[in-house]
What does this fold into?
Amino acid sequence: MQFPWLLLTLSGGAALAALAPLLTSRLKRGALLLALLPLAVFGQLCALLPKVAAGAVEQVNLAWVPQAGLALSFRLDGLGLVMSLLISGIGALVILYGDAYLHHHPARGRFHSLILLFMTAMLGVVLSGNALLLFVFWELTSITSFLLIGFEHERANARAAAWQALLVTGSGGLAMMAGFVLMAQISGSFEIGEWIAAAGTITAHPLAPAAFVLILVGAATKSAQFPFHFWLPNAMEAPTPVSAYLHSATMVKAGVYLLARLFPVLGGLALWPVLLTALGLLTLLGGSLLALAQTDLKRLLAYTTVSALGMLTFLLGIGSPLAVKTAMVFLVTHALYKGALFLTAGSVDHGAGTRELPLLGAAGRAMPFTAAAGGLAALSMAGLPPLIGFIAKELVYETTLAAPLPLLLTGLTFIANAATVTVAVWVGWRPFWGRPDAGELHPHESPPGLWIPPLLLAALGLGLGLGPGAAGSFLVAPAAQAVLQETLKVKLSLWHGLTPMLGLSVLTLLLGVGLAGLRRRLQPAWSHLWQALGKAGPAAMYPRSLHALLSFASWQTQVLQSGYLRIYVLAIVLTTVGLAGLTVGLRAGLPDFSNAWNAPRFYDLVLIGIILTATLLVTRARSRLATIALLGSIGFSIAVLFLLYSAPDLAMVQFAVETLSVILFVLVLYRLPKFSQLSGRATRLMDLVIALSGGLLMTLMMLMVSSHSEGSRLAAYFAENSLPLAKGRNIVNVILVDFRGFDTLGEITVLTLAAIGVFSLVRLAVKRKRRPFAEGGKAE
Amino acid sequence: MKRSLLLATAARYLMPLMLLFSIFLLLRGHNEIGGGFVGGLVAASALMLYGIAVSPSALRTLLPVEPRLLAGIGLLLALLAGSLPLFSGQPFMTGLWLTAEVPVLGKVGTPTLFDTGVYFVVIGVVLWILLSLAEE
It folds into this structure.
């Protein structure tokens, strides 16, 4: 019963999000109350820990839209548990931190509301057992991320960054959705559990690689893989707690999580190792090299986050049991130290007044607690014993040495790791114990709310490093088992003896620290180099492609929505003639018209004569009044024809419409410009051809309908069933309000919409102090 | 604009008659020639005749509700008629009928309500468009 309770607590998150603004504005320490929810989730997860570690998978299934294969199916296995622990645990800390960080911010309530919403959505992502459900939560995290990046929406930069993140992750999400649909086509289900069970048949399917690539695009955009990495550093416009929570510890790991989740399904594809290792390595290297060019603390951290995400993808790409185990250790390690470092950066910003690396230094004495948190986290990032980061790094080297192409992979990883060490020194040591390049700071310690959360996270990294056995068997082993779908013993330890990995670790540290010392000399040149390269990079492609998309949109709007009635009519007639004519020509052929023909009576001939004459005259008319009169006579003649062919309902409607049209014309007549003929001879000839083709098609279709030898079956059906089924004798009206009532409902809705359109156009014209039709041209 | 006295006087008497006729069309529509759509058109022409012959503002003061409100009410009535069967577990737009006949109206059911909705929408929309053009 524990898991359903957990879900129930979770759904409370959405409710609490609605209450958050009220709570934080009414109660001085309302955020403490809000943090109880993630804490409760965290506690329940801890209670489930032994059970899941023993290999149990908790499940809850509720039907939602069974027709579409959408079910509220939730699963909790080792992988989901590790992610959920991170999300809820860091979530609680971030809520507390956010309360202190935004203490005087007027929109504090909105922040807490969004953070809670995000947390609920993110937990939904990692607990979903149904791909469609996962997609729903996935998109919710994108939307909350958008709102949180744009939290300070008065700033244009924040808005642009939010927009960019949403566009990139949103379009990736669409690709992922397409991938899911393909997977469902292949396997017949949206349940991930069933995909895993049918993994063999899925990978053998010819469409599986396409599904994989589409899902990979979704994962790569969300997890900021090359070439989509650029949104993540820009997302640093968000308040720091948001960066710590969404953009380093949890949300950006959603893509990696999805890849790990689908590893048992798609890991067998030949494309999997090739694409993922290449993508991962590129991101790993690119992220860490770009990081060295940054001077802002948050951007530094953001680029190393990109590099860490690349590392995770890379490890999943290698896909050996060792690599998966390493990935799980690294996932936890990174969330702990990166979350802590981001929170520290916020505290430094608060206490020292800047986040610029060259300006920072010597703040350690004044900010001892922040310095302790930052230092501890940086030690884990740099991979020093006895922190968990050390174990992670040893494992990474062990994996690359055992993988195919060990020299190349180890070499590239070595470079990236050394850069990570450099960044760790810059963010964890320099602001506190280094010397500022220029000027002097007057730092002061931040309130406890700003240093307790990062200190806790950093201490946890130390705790896990000191107790690697428990971390291995309770966190890493169940998670790796869920990914590999096989039982696995994980023994983590700090000391492996004198191994090549240890040697590499020492070398990494030496190179990293050495590079860190050369900052003042090397960094400016390095930044210039990357700025020059950046002009051709994907970050520059983004505005260009966005611009291209927008200009295409406005171009096609101008073509399709010209504003000229004659173009619209032309388009409608030509499309109908083209498509319907094609169908008639290809499918039906010309029927036998002998049945369709009744000898006309003499009064039919009279009416048809009137209609034809009026039609001819209308095209030659030289005044509007004449045109209206002639059109009216056509309409009324048709109404009389309806009467003669015993369709009194149609005739009545036709009469009424004709009458109202006359009234309408009277109202607008004196506002219209003077009648004139604008089109030349060639245009008029062209119009004649088009009009005749439209008329010809309609005639042909009428003949085809009436030549149907049996007559329509519909007519007989309606005649028979009108009274018994719909209790009415007037078939026309029964069709309108009963048999095809849904159509009528749509039509009257459209009618109302049209009225709204006319009304607003007229109002607009009045507002512009201009007679609506005076300018001609546009309103022909 | 100069107004014709004859037309204005005639319109005063014609309009109520035409409105009555439109209601007659609406009510008998299910069995005989007529219906909400054509009834609405006739009613709208009746009112508009008055609006043109006397004045648009006179018509406005005569109307108990704004035309756009009328269109909205009609749309809601039609939607309500469609949704009523949902409460008895039947599909949207199923026709439900009272078992007993109502005097004058005859058989009454959700299609009658739906047709009334159409009637109001048509009057509302036509008057809305024409009045905004006439008053501008």
